[in-house]
Amino acid sequence: MPLTLGTRLLRMQLRLTKPIARFATIDDARKAQDQLGRMTAEILKTKVSFEPVEFDRFTACFAISNNCVEPCDRAVLYLHGGGYTAGGLDYAKGFGGLLAAQTRVSVLCAAYRLAPEHKFPAAQDDAMDAYQYLLDSGYAPEKIAIAGESAGGGLALSLALRLRDEGKPMPACIVAISPWADLTLSGSSYNNNVRLDPTLIRESLAYYVIAYAAGHEDEAYVSPVLGDFTGFPPTLLFAGSDEILLSDAKTVYKRLKKAGVESKLVVEDGMWHVYPLYGTPEGKKALEEMSLFIQTRLGLALPNSAEEASAPA
Predict the structure, then answer these.
(1) In angstroms, rounded to a whole number, what is the distance separating the alpha carbons of residues 280 and 277?
(2) Does the annotation mark 106 as catalytic?
(3) Class of domain 5-309
(4) Side-by-side strand order, sheet with 173-177
(5) 125-165 pLDDT, tens digit each
(6) Catalytic pick from 106, 150, 158, 263?
(7) Is 273 a catalytic residue?
(8) Which of 149, 243, 282, 289 is catalytic?
(9) Is the pTM of this model over 0.90?
(10) How far apart, in whole angstroms, are the C-alpha atoms of residue 245 and residue 194?
(11) How far apart are CA 194 and CA 244, in angstroms?
(12) How far apart are CA 215 and CA 121, in angstroms?
């Protein structure tokens, strides 16, 4: 289907502001993302409440739906995006709160430590701690979902690889939105979609690689596209057809299928990086699908809905 007028106008606005982003510092990006998260959380204040969770090395909180599905014993671990260099707790509360409102499941928003102050494996270590916290708090692994967007989507896959490698219980499912899963920047879309992508800048991504994981780019825990996904839970992927990271999602999907993992990749024509976060009709449709997928895998959706959510791509 062709993009709606509102979506086309938004795309034009994003493209117009892209040149400004070339000159933005990491501090600028952090402030902008946190402000966006605060705005989203304010909109959701009648639907979601937030409860802080104490960790030694990073900040976190639960986003709790005011209409939680009893007995409220399911959880989503949400890992935010930001190129591993931006995205604090305020930002994480934004989409984390939206997920909580949509799924009616508690969402643990983990504001993992950021580069360049904290390089790999700091983010993965913090994600491990957050997941272990859920297990230690009594959440059964089959009642935990992991979700993330952009760098957080890649981190979700990296976390699952490490959980599998260390013999820890795997979650019920994974949702990765425009996952940044190839920090070698070698996928075809890193060249083919450079001019199409209205938001991402390849040079900025290269800088984030240096800031976060210089010298580790070809390791699976940094670039999950290089990993073996045997033993993974059902996984749902989203990407825009015009984004630089399209090949990341496509390669992850191919490797999931090769490993025999139940998986689905949704590529929305004409859309851009992390499009489900933008509130467009296309984004709202994606949010509904991922929410149904999570609810189904956590045992909350109706049987007829479950069949729809698990349909192969």
Answers:
(1) 8
(2) no
(3) alpha beta
(4) 48-54, 59-65, 106-111, 75-79, 144-149, 173-177, 235-240, 263-268
(5) 999 999 999 999 999 999 999 999 999 999 999 999 999 99
(6) 150
(7) yes
(8) 243
(9) yes
(10) 10
(11) 6
(12) 12
